[in-house]
Amino acid sequence: MIIKGKKNRYLRSQAQTMKPVVRVGREGISDNLLTQIQQLLYKNELIKVSFLQNTMAEPQQLADALTELDGGIALIQTIGSKAIFYKKSPKVKNRKYSLELDKI
């Protein structure tokens, strides 16, 4: 899934003040990490992931693994050791950002 233009800018602006909810460390990218990120995306739609200094994983590797797992997950932005991911929530009560994106 690719998000472009004004929608991408909106999501980046919303993620600017967010704190990372997932940290990728020495273990790297594992199945447990991928399922944890997928569950967080179902609840929050937009999350920020931080890559610690001792990891060998790259944000693009994580993005590729997540899109293999679920094609609806989009990489919004990577800045240094941080990555922002978005997925529209299947539950209406968890939709916050997708409602705003529909208006754009």
From TrEMBL:
Pfam families: CRS1_YhbY. The keyword Lipoprotein does not apply. One of its GO terms (molecular function) is RNA binding. Residues 1-98 form the CRM domain. InterPro entries: RNA-binding_CRM (IPR001890), RNA-binding_domain (IPR051925), YhbY-like_sf (IPR035920). Keywords: RNA-binding. This is YhbY domain RNA binding protein. It comes from Companilactobacillus versmoldensis DSM 14857 = KCTC 3814.
